[in-house]
Amino acid sequence: MNKTIILGAGISGLGAAYACKQKGIQPLILEKDDTFGGLCGCFTIDGFTFDRFVHLSFAKEEEVLKIFNSSAGNIITHIPNPYNIYNRKWIKHPAQNNLFPLDEQEKKKIIDDFLARPQVDMSQITNYEQWLRMQFGDYFAEHFPMVYTKKYWMCEAKDLETKWVGQRVYQPSVEEVIQGSKTADTPVTYYAKEMRYPKTGGFKHFFSSLADSTDIRYNQKVVAINTEKKEVETEDGYVYQYDKLYSSIPLPEYSHLLHDIPEDVKIAISKLKCTSGYHISIALRTKNIPPYLWWYIYDEDILAARVYSPSLKSPMNAPEGCSSLQMEVYCKEGEYTEKQLLNGTVGKLVELGIIKQEDVLFTHVGFEKYANVIFDQNIYDSREIVRNYLKSVGIEPFGRFGEWGYLWSNQSLLSGMNAIK
């Protein structure tokens, strides 16, 4: 009987399994879906392959690259070229140093505010709104990132703390802002200089070799964990016994997986917040789509926060002569009807002339309960309480939603690998 059990066959769970095998341990993975990959997974409809949200790799870690390269074989490399839609205008990303398409009056407001930014000690900054105003001035902060924050994070910028920002938001110099207002010929300042993607098989092909060599039991949704008896019960009534238990299950799920949770842990769980999201997939009978791997949308009447093209990531993701797009909408499950979702996403692309209705072969709406962890003021204390409790009862949490952090795919893989002591 296998005594080491890993919960979840996403990229972090497979990373944990890889580390186990490096130590001579043969683990068993329990996965609730019918395939591996988790949020880094994909699905195929009528010859079109779509990922579950946008995924591209810019991993630099030697061990991660070794796994990705050996799994994927043929890899396509892209130079990032993201864009934005703001007031129906296409603006190069990041917008703060690519203001050229805006009218002169608006550019003047942004630059004047940028120059008038108060000199504030960073130690005095307590929330993301303050950080944005200090970095970019009031006008830009209010019309760009503060608007986008509501679409992407489902909260106001003042409700977020700032440790998560890191290199994710570019902070240009005065000279860059002014130069970018005068010309569209500006250098790429995105934090990753190249992006990689498997030629075939979707993003999860990067770690398919890990799944191929691991004992994974699919359609095994965990419904209860008895830490005293060291048992995991699944939805079909099967009970698995373990000596060691590693889990990528999202921290809030333990409120119903475990019994007799201490009150302070229950309270901490209730304070953990995240976004949910829909991905709206569009199959097109044409290759006439915007030439950008992905783009952000600031306009509030368009539900999607971000759009990307699976067929640009790899031409093998669509049949010959066709293309595809996916749009991300962050909201609570059921907040919009499917008709509202499609009208506010696909319908808006048609309205803007970006695609033609007659070119749409089909659309697909998928939902992800866990999308992004929300970095509010409660996150650090609350997740530490929950994680420490899980460890105290013999559960080792890891991965994006086990660590409850902002982990990219390479970081999620390493999270699983590092969980195995």
Explained architecture:
The mean pLDDT is 95. 31% of the residues lie in helices and 22% in strands. It has a seven-stranded mixed beta sheet. The chain is of the alpha/beta class and 421 residues long. It is globular and about 70 Å long.
Helices, strands, pairings?
Elements (H helix, E strand, L loop, with lengths): L3 E4 L3 H12 L5 E3 L11 E4 L2 E4 L10 H11 L2 E4 L4 E4 L2 E4 L11 H12 L12 H9 L1 H6 L1 H8 L21 H9 L12 E4 L9 H5 L2 E3 L4 E5 L4 E4 L4 E3 L2 E4 L6 H4 L5 H8 L3 E11 L9 E4 L8 E3 L1 H4 L9 E8 L7 H6 L2 H6 L8 E14 L5 H14 L2 E3 L2 H5 L4 H11 L2
Parallel strand pairs: 1-2, 1-13, 2-9, 6-15, 13-19
Antiparallel strand pairs: 3-4, 5-8, 6-7, 10-11, 11-12, 14-17, 14-18, 15-16, 16-17
- Report the portion of residues in β strands: 15-25%
Q: Uncertain spans, ≥5 residues at pLDDT below 50?
A: none
Radius of gyration: 22 Å
Average pLDDT score: 95
Main beta sheet, described? Answer: 7 strands, mixed
The assembly state of the depicted protein chains is single chain
Shape: globular
Q: Structural class, judged by helices and strands?
A: alpha/beta
Helix content: 25-40%
| Largest sheet: spatial strand order | 7-6-15-16-17-14-18
How many helices? 16
Organism: Segatella copri
GO molecular function, one term: flavin adenine dinucleotide binding
Domain Amine oxidase: 11-368
Protein name: FAD-dependent oxidoreductase
Summed up, what is this model?
With 421 residues, the chain is an alpha/beta fold. It has helices at residues 11-22, 62-72, 104-115, 128-136, 138-143, 145-152, 174-182, 208-212, 254-257, 263-270, 310-313, 338-343, 346-351, 379-392, 400-404, 409-419, and strands at residues 4-7, 28-30, 42-45, 48-51, 75-78, 83-86, 89-92, 195-198, 215-217, 222-226, 231-234, 239-241, 244-247, 274-284, 294-297, 306-308, 323-330, 360-373, 395-397. Helix 1 packs parallel to helix 16 (409-419), helix 3 packs antiparallel against helix 7 and helix 10 crosses helix 14 (379-392).
